[in-house]
Amino acid sequence: MTDDAAIKRWFTQEVLPLERDLVRFIARHCRNEADVLDLRQEVYERALTGSPIDRLRSTRSYVFTIARNVLVDRARRAKIVSFEQIADIDLVDLDPDLLAEERQMTARDELRRAMAGLDQLPPRCREVVRLRKVEGLSIRETAERMQVSHHTIERQLTLGLRALASFMLGGGARISRPPARPMPVRKADA
Q1: Among the listed ranges 12-26, 37-51, 88-102, 171-185, which one has the minimum average pLDDT value?
Q2: How far apart (Å, rounded) are the C-alpha atoms in residues 59 and 63?
Q3: Maximum mean pLDDT: which of 57-61, 80-84, 155-159, 164-168
Q4: Residue 136 near residue 151 (C-beta atoms within 8 A)
Q5: Predicted TM-score of the model (pTM)
Q6: Segment 93-126, tens digit of pLDDT
Q7: What are the sequence ranges of the domains in the chain?
């Protein structure tokens, strides 16, 4: 994956979506707000020129490791370096997924998306998913509360979770049922 088109595709599909988190990360660890965009560009440059793109396991970890290194390099080159700045950067874990603020924001976004998907389900299906997955009721308790059979609960839960997963992955929260199987025709005994 060394051709320019593949690198451009990797950059636009995997690196650019990280921009908001990357700028926030840099701003949190950079004393001068005017330098944030310059540091972002330096991170992008290093990512483009030094990446074994086809062997990356996590683009996010790769980009945030570069950002950390850029911040450390910048701090070391500064004529006056505060001990607080170096201490703050050294405390940053290499795995950016462990940063609580980013995890909370991501979780909130996912929760909003799940709630929006849940709202698009048909009423009975929505109620089954809510009772089972949000309130934690058992299949039997859910069936009793809704006054339907446990088979109905199982089927509605399966359909609802499939539709919700589709919605979370960018599709619509549509219930898709398999085509009905024709009933076998019995021959009358003569």
Answers
A1: 88-102
A2: 6
A3: 155-159
A4: no
A5: 0.41
A6: 555 555 566 666 677 777 888 888 888 888 999 9
A7: 4-96, 102-168
CB atoms within 10 A of CB 40: 18
Rounded Cα–Cα distance for residues 3 and 173 (Å): 38
Q: Which of 35, 47, 48 has the alpha carbon at shortest distance from 75?
A: 35
CA-closest candidate to residue 56, choices 98, 19, 1, 3 = 1
Which long-range contacts link 107-111 to residues 24+ away (Cβ below 8 Å)? Answer: 110/168
Class of CATH domain 102-168: mainly alpha
Q: How far apart are CA 36 and CA 42, in angstroms?
A: 10
| Closest by Cα among 151, 152, 156, 154 to 175 | 156
Q: What is the CA radius of gyration of the chain?
A: 26
Is residue 53 a contact partner of residue 10, using CB atoms and an 8 Å limit?
yes
| Alpha helices per DSSP H over 2-130 | 4-10, 19-29, 36-50, 59-77, 83-91, 100-119, 123-129
